[in-house]
Amino acid sequence: MELGITGRWALVCAASKGLGKGCAEALVMEGANVVINARSSKALEETAAHLRHLNPAASIYTVAGDIALVETRQAALEACPQIDILITNAGGPPPGDFRDWSRQDWLDAIDVNMVTPIELIKATVDAMASRGFGRVINITSAAVKAPIDILGLSNGARSGLTGFIAGLSRQPQLVGRNVTINNLLPGSFDTDRLRSTQKGIAQSSGRSYEDVRDSFRRSVPSQRFGTAEEFGAFCAFLCSAQAGYMTGQNILLDGGSYPGAY
Ligand code: NAP
């Protein structure tokens, strides 16, 4: 299927590794130009070189910096001649016990995982609407639908974003002008983040990394972890010309882990 996004401009946040990188790869292979962001410039430039190799016809720009900072967001927005596609993403907050979290811990989580995507959306959607095309995808988490106790900061901040998007995405001045906003909810994807979580559990429990990884894998009905390539391909379809009638949805990609019918 031709997705109809050749020549579109995409800003993909937190994209030097993992799910963000998977989204950037899929968009570039579909002919989009991208601005990619991450804090460490070394991995970011390596990913940019890889993307240029995937599609030499695409323009690939990089903006290094923490996307939660105003100046990074400004630089990322200015690096794109226009933004047709916005993929919001950042690292998730640390796990823990809510009894140990300070007010500042909550504010930091809300800043990165709720306010940052909202600020990026605010800066881009009205111009998308005026041009008659826009796609916003927020990378959130399966924990929005099935909260995990130790990920309370993530559950709280991402639920706030989810509630906000449910209202905004249905504004006729946006979806009536072909601007859609959807959330992608990853379950267990085989990225650095998942591997470091598994290593942490192995260290604290005295089990081997392989044993922890295998028990994670067997807990997923599909009996495997998702890949960043699968995630990116799904994201690219949501950004396609064909996906214009879907907005305000929370789409689980979790190998069947969520047990509910709805
Ligand atoms: P990952 O493999 O660790 O990659 C994270 C990427 O984001 C890296 O490129 C990292 O580069 C960049 N990044 C992190 N914080 C950033 C910031 N503040 N500003 C700019 N760039 C930033 O993680 P992932 O697995 O792809 O996860 C992506 C998101 O999905 C996270 O929010 C995670 O919580 C969520 N998620 C993942 C899974 C999963 O199974 N993988 C499941 C549920 C939810 P730098 O470190 O250089 O900045």
Notes on the structure:
This protein has helices spanning about 20-30, 40-55, 70-80, 105-130, 150-170, 170-175, 190-205, 210-220, 230-240, and strands at about 10, 35-40, 60-65, 85-90, 135-140, 180-185, 250-255. With about 260 residues, the protein is α/β, with parallel strands linked by helices. The chain has 2 domains: about 10-190 and about 225-255, 3-Layer(aba) Sandwich (Rossmann fold); about 190-225, no CATH class. NADP nicotinamide-adenine-dinucleotide phosphate binds near residues 16, 38, 66 and 188. This is Oxidoreductase, short-chain dehydrogenase/reductase family protein.
In short:
The protein has about 260 residues and is α/β, with parallel strands linked by helices. Helix content is about 45%, strand content about 15%.
Mean pLDDT: 97
Low-confidence stretches: none
What is the fold named in CATH at topology level of the largest domain?
Answer: Rossmann fold
Let me know the CATH homologous superfamily of the largest domain: NAD(P)-binding Rossmann-like Domain
- The H/E string reads EHEHEHEHEHHEHHHE
Overall shape = globular
Bound molecules: NADP nicotinamide-adenine-dinucleotide phosphate
Chart the SSEs and their pairings.
Blueprint: E1 9-12, H1 18-29, E2 33-38, H2 41-54, E3 60-64, H3 70-79, E4 85-88, H4 103-131, E5 134-139, H5 152-168, H6 172-175, E6 179-186, H7 192-205, H8 209-219, H9 228-238, E7 250-253
Parallel strand pairs: 1-2, 1-4, 2-3, 4-5, 5-6, 6-7
Helix pairs in contact: 1-2, 1-9, 4-5, 7-8
The structure holds NADP nicotinamide-adenine-dinucleotide phosphate.
Residues 14-20, 37-40, 43, 66-68, 89-92, 112, 139, 141-142, 186, 188-189, 191-194 line the site of NADP nicotinamide-adenine-dinucleotide phosphate (NAP).
Family: Belongs to the short-chain dehydrogenases/reductases (SDR) family.
InterPro entries: NAD(P)-bd_dom_sf (IPR036291), SDR (IPR050259), SDR_fam (IPR002347)
Pfam family, one: adh_short_C2
